[in-house]
């Protein structure tokens, strides 16, 4: 079996991440992989926003403010969790899709392409010796969070990718049988 195939079969998210994250040069190569995802009619519906260094604190404050707007009765624990969530990795990447009208490419296909881009970033990150995890949650659906990140009304968040170095051992991957998912018609 090829090393690439073996790598694909063992991809694994990392819920706990620590320093270092990918360097600027490494990130450039990672994003190049995202630019090669399937994209009907080449409309390039995606873009990527990095949040790193001290900007993670600023983003945490935005998440807390938006949480309080969404849920005015949010308790201290929930507020602290929101404020600190962006500190869980050295680097966050917000994967954004810009939904546009297209005669052949419905919004679902644009979102799917952006999802492929998110996965490509995770794969390329892992191939570069780092690790990551894709998270969403209520904040990713909150228009106030999107506006705070600078998104236009036509844009949406597909996911927040947390990237860095895996902290601790890799998670156990339960064995799956392809026969449970694959059939012949
Ligand atoms: C669209 C999407 C959203 C997700 N959102 C979250 C999330 O908010 N929190 C979380 O812990 N995992 C979330 N996950 C799951 C993790 O990214 C990861 O896939 C899961 O922990 C299983 O680990 P594995 O990828 O190594 O199998 C999400 C996955 C996808 C595809």
How would you explain this protein's 3D organization?
By secondary structure, the protein is an alpha+beta fold. It has a single domain (15-168), classed as NADH Oxidase (3-Layer(aba) Sandwich), CATH 3.40.109.10. The protein is 38% helix and 18% strand. The protein has helices spanning 3-9, 24-34, 55-70, 76-84, 107-127, 143-148, and strands at residues 17-18, 46-52, 91-98, 131-135, 155-166. Strands 1, 2, 3, 4 and 5 form a five-stranded antiparallel β-sheet that branches. Helix 2 (24-34) crosses helix 5 and helix 3 (55-70) packs antiparallel against helix 4 (76-84). The structure holds flavin mononucleotide.
List keywords for this structure.
single chain; 185 residues; alpha+beta; NADH Oxidase; five-stranded antiparallel sheet; 6 helices; 38% helix; binds flavin mononucleotide
Compose a concise summary of this entry.
This protein is α+β, with helices and mostly antiparallel strands and 185 residues long.
What is the fold's blueprint, element by element?
Elements: H1 3-9, E1 17-18, H2 24-34, E2 46-52, H3 55-70, H4 76-84, E3 91-98, H5 107-127, E4 131-135, H6 143-148, E5 155-166
Helix pairs in contact: 2-5, 3-4
Mean pLDDT: 97
Q: Which compounds are bound in this model?
A: flavin mononucleotide
CATH homologous superfamily assignment: NADH Oxidase
Number of helices: 6
Tell me the span between the first and last alpha carbons.
Answer: 27 Å
Instruction: Kindly provide the radius of gyration, computed on alpha-carbon positions and rounded to a whole number of angstroms.
Output: 18 Å
Largest sheet: 5 strands, antiparallel
Our count of domains comes out at 1
């Amino acid at each position: 079996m090829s090393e690439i195939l073996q790598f694909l079969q063992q991809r694994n998210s990392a819920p706990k991440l620590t320093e270092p994250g990918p360097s600027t040069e490494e990130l450039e190569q990672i994003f190049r992989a995202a630019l090669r995802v399937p994209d009907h009619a080449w409309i390039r519906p995606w873009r990527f926003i990095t949040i790193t260094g001290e900007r993670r604190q600023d983003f945490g404050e935005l998440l807390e403010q938006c949480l309080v707007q969404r849920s005015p009765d949010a308790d201290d624990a929930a507020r602290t969790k929101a404020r600190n969530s962006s500190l869980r990795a050295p680097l966050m990447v917000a994967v954004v899709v810009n939904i546009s009208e297209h005669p052949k490419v419905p919004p679902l296909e644009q979102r799917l392409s952006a999802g492929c881009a998110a996965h490509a970033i995770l794969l390329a990150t892992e191939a570069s010796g780092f690790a990551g995890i894709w998270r969403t949650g209520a904040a990713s659906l909150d228009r106030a969070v999107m506006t705070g990140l600078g998104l236009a009304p036509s844009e949406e968040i597909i996911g927040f990718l947390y990237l860095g170095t895996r902290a601790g051992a890799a998670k156990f991957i339960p064995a799956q049988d392809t026969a449970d998912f694959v059939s012949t018609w």
